């Protein structure tokens, strides 16, 4: 399948999560990608600029190097449309992404690229408690492409999510992937188990990724193992280090060396946060013998934010190489500004700033506090198997959980306008 690589150097992808009103949030006002030579000299800089509405949502960003401009349109705090104009290269094209919603969850995403013959459609379905049930992705281009995920939830010592992935392309290939994600009691991802199947349904590959955390809840390492001849063997590792303020400082990636019986680390990413936490610099290196030398960015997503004190959500950015190869950078600097209002709403998460639930966890009763414009009509409580265990349509300022087994539940608040707020609550 032929993919089209858009000639955008630094492109804003998403701001994930949400924040409560009046909290201080760090957002990027400018992003600079730098190309640095082997002598440590900056030979080229690429700049992106970001602007925000009064309520903190992203309004637009521009990338002057390639005459790229993207604008965002909202309705009732929901992102409705993104439009990107690329006027500095060939071909000139427009990218339009439209969103629809149902009960506060994203229902569909339509991604159309003019002049390039590429259209992408995503569809989402949810269980009654608001958890994702199915996701479908269809791509129309030189080769039609179709992916389908089915999400199931099981109750056990931890929450387990199973997803299935299948694709069809014009050549008739049919593949399948089954992934099981397991979480601890704090909802930290601990294990990802993956099985790949070929067109005839035979198992071709088994992988498992183990996630470990520090006592403060910071991700320390991810170890991948591959099943080979009936035995699990180490394959790769990603290791994280933090500074004294618990900010992410370093990421090391390596592969297993069976001869030495140890990890060989070959790439490194460093993260530097300024004292005022208004500048965030990410640099990329590779191993050359015993020395670390500059390396180019490889199009991975840079996820940061939960490590910045002032920032309550993670910001994800993507850097693309340009078609003529001029876009390779090995350092990216984010200049941040501070706002005190919620930022751009993640389309796959609930917008819950109008609802406060306390105490959580609790042994007896959950209390709910709403903003003045919220009109609740019903409260529903579901266990991890999706079964409704409590419901009430009167006295909506609290709900009693006495008598329920200890564990994690999903609480749904249905509003008069049809929207639904959901949250995880814990019964001790």
Summarize the structure in short.
The chain has 428 residues and is mainly β. Helices cover 0% and strands 60% of the residues.
Strand and helix map with partners:
Elements: E1 10-16, E2 25-36, E3 42-52, E4 58-63, E5 68-75, E6 78-86, E7 93-102, E8 105-113, E9 118-126, E10 132-140, E11 145-154, E12 160-169, E13 174-183, E14 189-197, E15 203-213, E16 219-228, E17 231-242, E18 248-257, E19 262-273, E20 279-288, E21 291-294, E22 302-304, E23 314-319, E24 331-339, E25 355-358, E26 365-370, E27 376-382, E28 388-392, E29 398-400, E30 407-415, E31 420-427
Antiparallel strand pairs: 1-23, 2-3, 2-24, 3-4, 4-5, 5-6, 6-7, 7-8, 8-9, 9-10, 10-11, 11-12, 12-13, 13-14, 14-15, 15-16, 16-17, 17-18, 18-19, 19-20, 20-21, 20-24, 22-23, 25-26, 26-29, 27-28, 27-30, 30-31
- Please tell me the total number of domains: 2
How far the N terminus sits from the C terminus, by CA atoms, comes to 51 Å
State mean pLDDT (0 to 100 scale). Answer: 77
In the predicted model, the low-confidence regions spanning at least 5 consecutive residues are 1-22, 305-316, 320-326, 343-353
Gross morphology is globular
Our Rg estimate from Cα atoms comes to 23 Å
Task: Please describe what this structure looks like.
- The strands form four sheets. This protein has a 20-stranded antiparallel β-barrel. It has a four-stranded antiparallel β-sheet with strand order 28-27-30-31, with no helix packed on it. Strands 1-23-22 form a three-stranded antiparallel β-sheet, with no helix packed on it.
- It is built from no helices and 31 strands.
- It folds into two domains: 10-339, no CATH class; 355-427, Sandwich (Immunoglobulin-like), CATH 2.60.40.1930.
- It has strands at residues 10-16, 25-36, 42-52, 58-63, 68-75, 78-86, 93-102, 105-113, 118-126, 132-140, 145-154, 160-169, 174-183, 189-197, 203-213, 219-228, 231-242, 248-257, 262-273, 279-288, 291-294, 302-304, 314-319, 331-339, 355-358, 365-370, 376-382, 388-392, 398-400, 407-415, 420-427.
- It has 428 residues and is mostly beta strands.
